[in-house]
Design brief:
Elements: H1 12-15, E1 19-20, E2 24-25, E3 45-50, E4 60-62, E5 70-73, H2 80-83, E6 91-95, E7 98-99, H3 105-113, E8 118-124, H4 126-134, E9 155-160, E10 168-172, E11 180-184, H5 189-192, E12 200-204, E13 207-208, H6 214-222, E14 227-233, H7 238-243, E15 262-268, E16 277-283, E17 286-292, H8 299-303, E18 310-314, E19 317-318, H9 324-333, E20 337-343, H10 345-353, E21 382-384, E22 387-389
Amino acid sequence: MKKRSGIKDDLKLTTMFPFNPKLGIDNPALCLGEDPGSDPESAARFCVLRKDASGTFGFTLRMEVERNGHVVREVIPGGPAYLVGLKDGDQLLQINGEYVHEQEHLKVVQKVKASGSRVSLAVLDECSYGKLRTNNTSPLSILTNVLPESCPRPRLCLVRDEGRGFGFTTSATGGVRGTFLLNVEDGGAAQKAGAPSGARLLEVNGESVTSFTLSQLSKKLQNSGSRVVLLVLEASAWGVYEAQGVTPSIAFADISCVPYRTRKLHLVRSPQGYGFLLRQEKCLSGQGQFLRELDPGLPAEVSGMREGDRLLAVNGQSAEDLEHEDIVSIIQQSGNQVTLVVVSNEGDRFYSEIGASPLLFYEEQTLDNVSTHVKESSGQILQESKTTQV
C-alpha cells in the first residue's frame, strides 16, 4: 500500500502522550471540555442598546402566564437588540443597574422608554432561568452590579414660588460644567418640596443639566415661571451610581414629594353599564384618552374615577400607544369587569411638562385596596366616532 505523503508511520507517535488511568490523558489537546455531568453556573449577560434610526431598540417585552417577570420577544433581525446578542425568550432582570424582575410590568416597560436613546440591560437565557426556577433560586443571586436597596434614589421635587422665590441657590463644583449643588434655605419653598440641601442637581423641568454652564442654568431657572421641577440626588449617593456605571435619571425617581399619583381602579359592570364616557382628546403630549361624564352611583364613580382623568392602561396593557378603537375592543373583550390605571388631569399635565410618562411611577396595588361596584351586567359599549359610552 502506498504511504500518504508527509505522514510518517512511526510507533513513537502512539507513545508520545501516555495514558495514566489515575491521571487521565496527558494530551491537553484531547481535553475538549469540562465534565459533561456538571452544569455550568447561570450567568447574566449585560448589554447596552442604542435606538436605531426609527427610534426603537428592536425588541418587545412581554409578561407571560407561564413565566414570572418580563420576557424578551420579537427580536428584530439586524436591529439594536439583535446586534448586541439579545435573544427571543431571554429573561429581563435589570435595567440601568436596577433589579426589575419582580416589578410591575407596566412600570418596567416605562423604565425602558424613559432611558432615552440608550439603555443598559441584564438578561438571562431561557434555559438558565428555568434552572433557577426549578431550584427556587432568586435571579438576584446571580447579579453582581445591582444598586443596593439602601442607595437613595433621585428625588423629583415640585417647587412653587410662594412670593419669596424658589428658596434655593446653586453652585458649580470644581468649575466643572454640569455639576451643580443645591443650597436650600431653611423653611423655603424648595425645602417644603422635599429638596435636601447639598444635593446634586440632575434635571430642571425634565431637561438634564449635565451640559449646562452656571449662566445657562440660571437662565433656565429664571424662565421657569412660578414653579420649577427639580430632579436631585443626595450627594453621598453619587459615588454609588458611578461605581455601578449607572447614570441616575428620572427612571429611578422617588416621587413621594410630588402630589400627583396614578390610581388603579377595578370596575364590575352594573346593568346600566360602567357609567362613564371614554373620549379621545388633544393634550400636551398629542392625543390621549380621557374619562368624562361620570354617572352618579355607577361603578366608575364608586371606584374612585374623577371627571377628566386620563386613561393610562387597561387590563395591564398601556393605553398610551393604542388607538381609541383598540381600547374599546379591549374593554369589550374583558367581559363584565375591567381594570384601569388613570391619573388626574392636573397630574397628566405635570408629567407631560417634564416629558415623563405617569406609568413610570405607577405602583401596583392589590384589589383589596380598590373600591368595586358588583352587580350583574347587561350593559354594552356603544362606539360613536372617538367618543364611547361605557
